């Protein structure tokens, strides 16, 4: 019996070793293949996307096996030991409870619906390689001959297999909601003849569905997968390598140091760290889980209430997707859909991002001061902390230079950034740790770990990129998107504000529980054509719906970022949602502000120079109204209504009204800070 147990244990250990080795091999291979394609472009993009899809899906299913069969080897966003154990930065109990909440909520988010049987996952991994291998082997036939002479039964079966694989991978990575949209899109292609009104169409056979959905090199193989496997992948892989080289720890170290030197304490760490990490990850939920595991215990230790701690982190994490130069998956898709260089999307996103994070910073400051959650235990900022990660500035400078000055594609810019970062890390380690074989070996191991980590972080996105292509092709091929756009314009009756309100509602509803890229694509198909038909410029219209799709992460009843934040904080979900809406309130008006002030998106002189500070004052006024505090006095409803009126004047009024509202906002701030505005409520009562 002992011999049998020993054999079983040894076999299981060998199986885990083989599994880890396979994941490592697939991960490194996928990243190197992406970098090689960026460097040489040896094959056309659709063919590359197919190979990327096969390796990425296989890697994803191997990771699913690891979660079930080898949980100790699975990748979690953080380790418990990584949560700081310093005075004022979270107690041991707080760290443990935060970590438990984090891993529970984040694993549920990542794993979708339950866990997959290892045998089934391995079969799906093999099927992914086999199906995409079939497409690669018959690529010339599928691209040319089959388009003229027809597809074979085998072609159609492989096409359906690919649709099933990307749909299943989406379900396991992102849950049932977005998967149900994929299933409904496929079903809609079949049942169109029996539907009423605008939903009726001629219908498709299963062969047509397989052709449009995948095997005709459309649908799954459309522009979404093409952009995702190139522009998006190179940046996510760069982020994975940067994390392996210590970039995340560097950002958090700066945040902690700032927390010890600010009157408001560590509360600003959430805003800064989440702003930076959100730009890299492009996911509000993952950002909340990762940075929130560090920041929320710190914030609570300062005495800030649980619901506020959760709300601050959730709002700050949600906005990271709009922060240039890397603005998440949706921004890359936006550039390709509109057909403009990505640098134009960067330019369009700078001022809205500044407005959003300025308002969040002001809200966090006012809330902290209002409730007396400040700290007197401040120390001078240790500028030597910056020196620890100064080497990261070099690849970042290369990224900015290649994207903005040279105007390279994101794929080329990401490639040159990686090519810069790796030798910089080698030189830095040789300088700091000394020139030795051991230093070279350790740095090489870190490099390959980074190659693997980048692919591991990309793998869950591969399925949803293919699924979004499936949704897009069926919604457009059946004519549904055009019909809905026409109906929205008709319902609005030519009134722009009504159409914008409908677009806002649709963006938020589509975004509830969905990743921002999925929500953005759905809204772009169904809503944006109607908005642009009323004279709104393309980038402005796309940025408008992108913002609201992003803000759905803090909008009840789903509010996925708030759900994860409240789980980590041990706070009430509903109370956290209320506070998140108060802190993030300007985000719901900023999109309307850049519709009214188009120079915030398309820069021009002197319009942008005039509009930006006035709208900035308007967002600050809105924060004062929603928080009910001006920095000195608590405000009654009369004063709050006054600030709200000034907000609308500064954001949406004609230039004369904007200037007057801005002047009154500055005058009110001056009077408040000279104690000439009487207190409405005693702050001690709260």
Automatic annotation (TrEMBL):
Task: Fetch the InterPro entries from UniProt.
Answer: DctM, TRAP_DctM-Dct_fused
Lineage: superkingdom: Archaea
Key words of the record = Membrane, Transmembrane, Transmembrane helix
Transmembrane annotation, as ranges: 21-40, 46-63, 115-135, 147-166, 173-195, 215-239, 260-280, 326-346, 353-373, 385-406, 413-431, 458-476, 488-512, 518-537, 544-571, 583-603, 610-629, 641-667
Q: Does the keyword Membrane apply?
A: yes
Q: What does UniProt give as the signal peptide span?
A: none
Where would I find the TRAP C4-dicarboxylate transport system permease DctM subunit domain in this sequence?
A: 163-602
Q: Which Pfam families match?
A: DctM
Q: Which NCBIfam families match?
A: TRAP_fused
- The protein, known as: TRAP transporter fused permease subunit
Q: Which organism is it from?
A: Salinadaptatus halalkaliphilus
